[in-house]
Amino acid sequence: LPRWKVLTSTLAASWVCVLTCLLIAFAFIATVVGVDFGPHVLLCLVAVGMASLMSSAAGAALGTIRRMRIDMVIAITVLLSLFTGLYGPGAQSLADAVERSAPLLTRVNPLWQCAHCFYGLLYYDSLAPFARSCAVLAGMTCLFLSIAMVRMRRMSHEHL
User: Fold this and answer.
1) Other CB atoms within 10 A of residue 140 CB
2) Which of 61, 92, 121, 143 could anchor a disulfide with 40, C-beta 3.0 to 4.6 Å?
3) Residue-wise pLDDT tens for the chain (160 aa)?
């Protein structure tokens, strides 16, 4: 099989699995926990879809690194999550300080973009921040897929 077909089918399968799990979690949060997502509930589903697609593409790019182990992927995820402010007041202070001193560095963090995709829906009157985050997530998805495609050309199928 051509490698682009392998990448496309693998990405599609992983995206469906991740998207399904996140939609179940979203439904649980909305119905059982009772979180009100306001008038933009359907756009929240778009945000879930974009975030899951980007994370699947990032996983495909990381998966093409031969010596990348799962604990290394977890470490990268935890480190990037630290700068989104999702770990409590200390992490929020750190994330705010980094955002003030290096805003571009903050915005290239894929997890920051995922979080702010939702913030754009929940905390702003305009949909412009949401659309901007979705566009950046789409760009990151393309970048990660390009990296995966280029790196796959040098790999054997056994590793995949």
Assistant:
1) 22
2) 121
3) 777 788 889 899 999 999 999 999 999 999 999 998 888 999 999 999 999 999 999 998 998 888 888 889 889 888 888 888 888 888 889 888 988 998 888 899 999 999 989 888 888 889 999 999 999 999 999 999 999 888 877 665 554 4
Q: pTM of this prediction?
A: 0.85
At position 86, the amino acid (one-letter code) is L
